[in-house]
Amino acid sequence: MRLALIWSEVWNGLRRNVSMVVSVVLVTFISLTFVGTAVLLQMQIGQMKNYWYDRAQVAIYLCTADSAGDTCAAGAATEEQRAAVQSALESSTLAPFVDKFYFEDQTQAFTNFQEQFKGNDIAQFVTADQLPETFWVNMKDASQSDVLVEAFSGVAGVEQVTDQRQYLDQIFSVLNIASYTAIGIAALMLVAAALLIATTIRLSAYSRRRELGIMRLVGASNRFIQTPFILEGVFAALIGSILAAGAVITIVQVFVQGYLADRMRYVNFVDLGDAFVVLPILLLVGVLLAAISANFAISRYLKV
């Protein structure tokens, strides 16, 4: 009987405040969608870092005829200088750090450049002799790339030693900024949802103040009186959480796997398995947010 009465009060409260309930559902839905997207973006960044950092190469660019600098004062790198670089990579000092390497001559570099910048006007103004010969080195541990940078910096015939991870760091920095922005927006939306839930509960309590007074007079406990209001907030937030979960699944299935994955096959994108890991978080956050907000509102403002 008590349970039936509680659910009757919950239904009456929801029915009387339909517009506010819809507002709570929408705000919770939008805020938790941002939360889910931000979590998935962080998971995507983590996967990409694990994949690309392990495959990041160190490029040892040899001097060309147009190179400047003390190590290129004699002009383009000679056969002896190329052989010296290769011998150093195969030496007992550096070999323990090197997984594999290959040499790219100017003809190969030009072919790769034309493919990379196909359709770009810059491809028309570059010739093979302007591109450097390069040793591309894969490290056993990408975090130890500084060993090669120190070993070949200042060596005659070597124009520059570049760790590709510095370019990846710039890309991941942009992705992290986007992720933190989504988290910030989600936090603001969650605050708005909490305030809206609290306001809804206050209005619902005010509209039923006479009934609450009667319940108090007949001996109803504070917990019995407060429970329907908390359940109202939890119910509305739960609907918003379920909608947010559906939106996250749709984003992963339709946009990430259905669009991006087909066009960028070299990237390991998040999938439905990752999305299903996020879903319980969204539901838990939605329910807790509503329960805490409603309990605070009814304890703070309901005078019984």
From TrEMBL:
Pfam families: FtsX, FtsX_ECD. Keywords: Cell cycle, Cell division, Cell membrane, Membrane, Transmembrane, Transmembrane helix. The chain crosses the membrane at residues 21-45, 177-201, 229-256, 276-298. Signal peptide: none annotated. Belongs to the ABC-4 integral membrane protein family. FtsX subfamily. Part of the ABC transporter FtsEX involved in cellular division. Forms a membrane-associated complex with FtsE. This is Cell division protein FtsX. It comes from Plantibacter flavus.
